[in-house]
Amino acid sequence: MAQGEFGATLSVTIDDVAEAAGVSIRTVSRVLNKAPNVGDETRKTVLETIARLGYSPSIRARALASGRSFLIAVVQDDPNAHVISALQRGIVETCSRHGYELVVHPVRFGDPEVAADVESFVRRSRVDGLIVLPPTSEIAAIPARLTQLGVPSVGIASVSLPEYPCMLVSDERGATFELGRRLVELGHRRIAMIEGPPHFRSAQQRKAGFLAALPGPMPDAYLQKGDYGFDSGLAAADALLSLNQPPTAIFACNDIMAAAVIKAARERGVDVPGQLSVAGFDGSDLAAMITPALTTIRRPLTEMARLATESLLAMIEDPKSASSHEPIALSLIQRQSMAAPGAV
Amino acid sequence: MAQGEFGATLSVTIDDVAEAAGVSIRTVSRVLNKAPNVGDETRKTVLETIARLGYSPSIRARALASGRSFLIAVVQDDPNAHVISALQRGIVETCSRHGYELVVHPVRFGDPEVAADVESFVRRSRVDGLIVLPPTSEIAAIPARLTQLGVPSVGIASVSLPEYPCMLVSDERGATFELGRRLVELGHRRIAMIEGPPHFRSAQQRKAGFLAALPGPMPDAYLQKGDYGFDSGLAAADALLSLNQPPTAIFACNDIMAAAVIKAARERGVDVPGQLSVAGFDGSDLAAMITPALTTIRRPLTEMARLATESLLAMIEDPKSASSHEPIALSLIQRQSMAAPGAV
DNA sequence: GCTAGCGCTGGCAACGCTGTCAAAGGCGCG
DNA sequence: CGCGCCTTTGACAGCGTTGCCAGCGCTAGC
């Protein structure tokens, strides 16, 4: 019911508009959906009436009638604020450009029920599609279920999972390989590394790429475990710097642990990069803010998110449109924390 | 249509369940909504049938029929990944505990159309309620419109806006006052500050609280402009440290600028905290990762977000429930970047 | 013995929109 | 001049739920 010309509320419906404009609701609907077959004059009248009454269509009703919700979801764990936020920015921006809304569905990577949880979420909320963020995107059971449900999905990860109809695969392995080679070229021979959690395939990729770039196998003592947390980075750095033959370069699998290495080095009076080169991974803001500024590997996260969203929307709009697995190149950002080995 | 016992798809409806269970759809609906008036036996049968068919109710249809969407929205600008992500964590967690989903609606603080944009978003998406994050929560026109639409909203900010039916007001002014007093107690007399963007009321609060704690007025040269960005912090720090009488303490209105101060000091060979004390604001992870670790003010963001969400959901479930404006106390985290002034 | 009241269940309409189909009117073409 | 075709418009039937009210079979109360 329209409540008069002013103070239009949520309760103005398409019927009110149709009545006020003297046309059928179907015609109003056509105008709303920019259907081609509407007379110019009619369209104009309807548009004016809509504006006059302050009407906005109910997405809910539209969803029920059309089978499309104009909602997409992002499935994410929350290990890293920087990554999530950069990705979300790109997704949300693309969504609103296309008239979609974004719903956030958090999950726990370690939870054995993740796939079931995501499925039940999709069934209830009836979103039109999903974007699955790392590391959750490494779980093959999720895209498998989604495909079975017929819901389009896009994964963002460092490895390609055939279960996804569409993926953005960042070449983390290639990037760490390049970083490793760079260190070797600089003259480093005692090169150490702090791993990420081994159950993340991206962590495996980073490790594999880096190790492959080195001339020989890495001594066990140089290969430290880490969990992407600051404290684990501190512990690993302490262990490395306490060795009789400490490394002249340390690659930490994310920026946070790399920052910990720099802090640990500083507290022991080890000069970075004079006595120790340090590199991280993520291209986070943090890397630029610490002293010395951290060499790191940047993923074009916002850009990737935009691409992922565009692909997803294309799949939604046209289910036949074949989408592919896109490789994404990463870039090495060289800063002050890395240099040729100095006085050993 | 049910497609057999296995491979149940999205298309299982309440009708299928009703038929399979031998009851009316109305009864199935009652079971779904945990209505009290259902016989134990009937409930059991229905529940079993639901499980057997793999049925999940359509939130969309429920929304249309009941006038509730079980969707709440968070309205946010994106100035600070750390803040947004901590808040989102609390919101999303509380939502899913209560069976709601979260949709993210980004806005631009500076946009003159923000309020209209939010209104149109609410009208289209028909969310049941909104949580407005800082700094967008400082714009009074937004809650004003929402109240007019009859949509519950909760604001999280550093100042109380009467337009909001419910707010969480963090006492940033009180916290910076305490910080200022602490610096004075430590013996600092030459105290400087780097402001945030003056059009943020929270920045005004932080400034006002800090200045009020000092024994005398702050010299103009000690009061530097900043925009919460790292570079602006660097510039301000450079200006301050170039003075004939450089300050012995600098309070930067956020952690990022404080990190810049520490970096600038280091590059000039100014020892922190020996020659210069530095404090920030935000309690971000960054603060703990830099060297020296940064004294900062922590808002219990995730906790606040949880509280805000609980209040919002209470208002949604029971519109009569009176919600209030809750003051939130912040805590000063003292770390190595702050000490008594040393050799001046 | 009759009615009121209770616990449980079902039928019907509605929520606000779109899909489908068909009708009305105007046009070109043979 | 008549036919078919195209464009514009409308009627009707859903979409999958819930709200409302009625009705069933009982028991309790007068």
Account of the protein in words:
Two copies of one chain form a homodimer. Chain A has 13 helices and twelve strands. The first copy, chain A, folds into three domains: 14-57, 434 Repressor (Amino-terminal Domain) (Orthogonal Bundle), CATH 1.10.260.40; 67-171 and 301-329, 3-Layer(aba) Sandwich (Rossmann fold); 172-298, Response regulator (Rossmann fold), CATH 3.40.50. Chain A is an alpha/beta fold and 344 residues long. The termini of chain A are far apart. In chain A, the strands form three sheets. A six-stranded parallel β-sheet of chain A has the order 2-1-3-4-5-11, with helices on both faces. In chain A, strands 7-6-8-9 form a four-stranded parallel β-sheet. A two-stranded antiparallel sheet of chain A has the order 10-12. In chain A, helix 5 (81-97) packs across helix 13, helix 6 (114-125) packs parallel to helix 7 (141-149) and helix 10 crosses helix 11. Strand 2 of chain A pairs antiparallel with strand 2 of chain B. The first copy, chain A, binds a DNA duplex (30 and 30 nucleotides) through helix 2 and helix 4.
